[in-house]
């Protein structure tokens, strides 16, 4: 393995920090070179990236700026490209800062190199599998664009860690710092996690609010609404919005009751008799009740009178009785 690494070109070995012949080892306060501008650039990029994507994502949720420019799906891809590019630039600035800072001899042992490689690979595993599980839109804040995940992801690595992408990124920073034997890199890795932790305090509740608002705004199904309307509407009280067939049925029932009263045989006092008569057919609601009809009663046709004619027949009966 060492022969294979020795065969690599010198620029590659220098970039991968495989050759520490030119390292300057310091102890105490000397492990930090405050005069290096690259140190401040690395600190600035550590702060800038989470601030950038949170501001842009919240603006997108409220104003739909990227959606108006690119469309919703392409807007997510545009944000993803910018975040990924800024991440590559931040990593390059971080690596440049570590190369120009003093080193510590305790971190130069083979055990530290193995630990550094293990931390870096584990961190990259968490990051890559998180992107695979969430997809591009799930990873790069697609829910701020209205593209919501159908269900919570519970597979690896989310069944191991709550925020595997941030944990994985921090482990990659820490592994790189140990690999470069840089105490400043370890301090910057701690700063990376602190910035991520603060960002999570804003991102977590806001993301939960997005899904809660989407859930409460979902309309109920028509079948459920119809069932609820049937339960709240009393069936015993007539409503003003009755159908024409219901009005026709009511008028037919009234005409039939008048016809039944007129068809009853009159007694000696001219009033309708209580003796049972032949049953009278009832009209269906959709048929118009005739003004006058004949009902068979013991072979004699009895004319069914209107309410006015019933009154006149009663008057004639009283007059004949008085005479």
Helix content: 55-70%
Uncertain runs are 235-249, 251-262, 275-283, 286-323
Q: Count of DSSP helices?
A: 11
Taking all residues together, what is the mean pLDDT? 77
| Estimated share of beta-strand residues | under 5%
- Give a short account of the largest sheet: 2 strands, antiparallel
Structural class assignment: mainly alpha
H/E order of the elements? HHHHHHHHHHEEH
General shape:
elongated
The radius of gyration over CA amounts to: 45 Å
What topology, given as strand order, has the largest sheet? 1-2
Number of strands: 2
N-to-C CA distance: 141 Å
Summarize the model shown.
The chain has helices at 2-6, 10-15, 37-63, 65-70, 72-99, 110-139, 164-179, 183-216, 222-232, 244-263, 307-322, and strands at residues 294-297, 300-303.
């Amino acid at each position: 393995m060492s022969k294979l690494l020795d065969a690599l070109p010198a620029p590659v070995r220098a970039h991968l920090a495989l050759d520490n012949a030119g390292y300057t080892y310091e102890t105490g306060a000397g492990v930090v070179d405050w005069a290096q501008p690259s140190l401040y650039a690395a600190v600035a990029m550590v702060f800038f990236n989470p601030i950038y994507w949170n501001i842009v994502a919240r603006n997108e949720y409220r104003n739909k700026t990227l959606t108006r420019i690119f469309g919703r799906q392409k807007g997510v891809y545009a944000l993803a490209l910018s975040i990924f590019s800024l991440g590559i630039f931040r990593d390059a600035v971080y690596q440049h800062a570590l190369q120009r800072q003093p080193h510590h001899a305790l971190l130069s042992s083979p055990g530290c190199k193995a630990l550094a490689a293990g931390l870096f690979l584990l961190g990259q595993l968490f990051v890559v599998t998180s992107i695979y599980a969430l997809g591009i839109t799930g990873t790069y804040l697609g829910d701020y664009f209205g593209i919501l995940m159908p269900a919570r992801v519970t597979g690896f690595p989310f069944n191991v860690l709550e925020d595997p992408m941030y944990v994985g990124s921090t482990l990659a920073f820490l592994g790189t710092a140990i690999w470069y034997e840089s105490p400043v890199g370890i301090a910057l890795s701690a700063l990376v996690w602190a910035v991520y932790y603060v960002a999570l305090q804003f991102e977590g509740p806001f993301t939960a609010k997005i899904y809660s608002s989407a859930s409460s705004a979902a309309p109920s199904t028509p079948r459920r609404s119809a069932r609820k309307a049937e339960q709240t509407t009393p069936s015993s009280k007539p409503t003003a919005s009755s159908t024409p067939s219901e009005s026709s049925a009511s008028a037919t029932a009234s005409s039939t009751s008048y016809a039944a009263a007129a068809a009853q045989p009159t007694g000696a006092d001219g009033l309708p008799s209580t003796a049972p008569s032949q049953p009278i057919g009832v009209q269906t609601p959709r048929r118009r009740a005739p003004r006058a009809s004949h009902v068979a009663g013991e072979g004699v046709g009895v004319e069914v009178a209107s309410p006015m004619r019933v009154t006149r027949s009663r008057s004639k009966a009283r007059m004949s009785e008085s005479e």
